[in-house]
Specification:
By secondary structure, this protein is α+β, with helices and mostly antiparallel strands. It folds into two domains: 8-170 and 344-374, Aminopeptidase; 177-320, Gcn5-related N-acetyltransferase (GNAT) (Aminopeptidase, 3-Layer(aba) Sandwich). 37% of the residues lie in helices and 27% in strands. It has helices at 31-36, 38-46, 57-67, 121-134, 151-158, 179-183, 188-203, 216-230, 243-258, 303-317, 331-334, 354-374, and strands at 23-28, 73-80, 83-95, 98-103, 115-116, 140-146, 163-175, 207-210, 262-269, 272-281, 285-293, 322-327, 339-349. Strands 1, 2, 3, 4, 5, 6, 7, 8, 9, 10, 11, 12 and 13 form a 13-stranded mixed sheet that branches. A hairpin with a 3-residue loop joins strand 10 and strand 11 (285-293). Helix 3 packs antiparallel against helix 9 (243-258) and helix 8 (216-230) crosses helix 9. The protein is globular. The model is unreliable at 375-379 (pLDDT under 50).
Amino acid sequence: MTLSSLTPGDVAPRLSLPSAVEWSVEVHREEQALVALADELRDLYDRSPAATPFQTYEWLKAWWGWYGTSGRLRLFLVRCRGRLVAAAPLTAGVRHGFPVLLPLAGEQSDFTDFLLDPVYADGAVRHLTRALLDEHGWCALDLREVRPGSAAHLVAAEWPRRAWRMPSSVCLELPAAGIDDVLGRLPRRTAGKMRAKLRKIDVRGITVEPVPPERASDAVHALLDLHVRQWRGRPINPEHTRQRFRRHLAEAASGMVRDGRAAVLQYRWDDRLVASDLVLIGHRYVGAYLYGAIPDLRGCVDVSLMLLREDLAIARDRNRQGVSLLRGDEPYKLKWRPTPVQNQRVILGRTVSAAAFAGMARTRAHLSDRRHRRRGGHG
């Protein structure tokens, strides 16, 4: 989800540059640090315009609680005059037999990045780079989904050793506009059919409402029940059926809805829950992370059109720039003629074995792309 990016205007000059003694670095390896630093990490997120909801404290803490392995946390922090100005929430792991550092919640996140206050960008990036290199026991830092404008690109530019970049997922974006404006991007005949489908939704009396924070957890469980039902008989992401994913998502959504970082929308028809949508709300964009609908709803209405209209309304109401349709170029997304945005996989090497790891990563990515193309271009 392209939910934010650093622009030149975000990197503001300091009136007085901090001296070397005013910088400090910390590396935390225990879960208690995540709890103790909650308020500071929330505050840093608010000051990090490139960060996406996948870098919020609530998302990371919930993920660590259900997926993390004790002793593998690597939380790198940079302070200036005592204030937290950069953070790299990572975990130590093994990938393809190589010891690596990985972003927290990377497998469940559409974007991976660091937290960075752009007012302190130059010094913070320099000190974060040094802290990462000084940490022993890993050969490469593997960031799989780095969007354009991310803070991670600033670290990669500063990296004194070998670094590799390769294409990753494509994300699709629409500007924050009314649904009529989006339909105006389509051929006239197609737009006319879509407007007829919208009238059909309204005539059937399907209503939508966001759930309050105290109901967010239960609403996510209901959403996942619908999600599993709609995929019955078809290949589904197996992680979406597991209890750890369900518990992570419910816990994260509760805090994110409370803080205005997410919304869970429920659609009802004759008081029956027929669809639900989890929308993550970033600094500049919103993104539809996951939805579920009863299987027979598709025979009655255009579900993706129904959801998109509400997601666009959230983006406008929250003064965001647009809606991200997240990773993937499935036909139901492409029909809106969105703008494609290419993520990158960024690998930062620390030891000589990083080259072998990067080579294996590139080969595997190439083979995966070939399989993807043989299936017709869509997963």
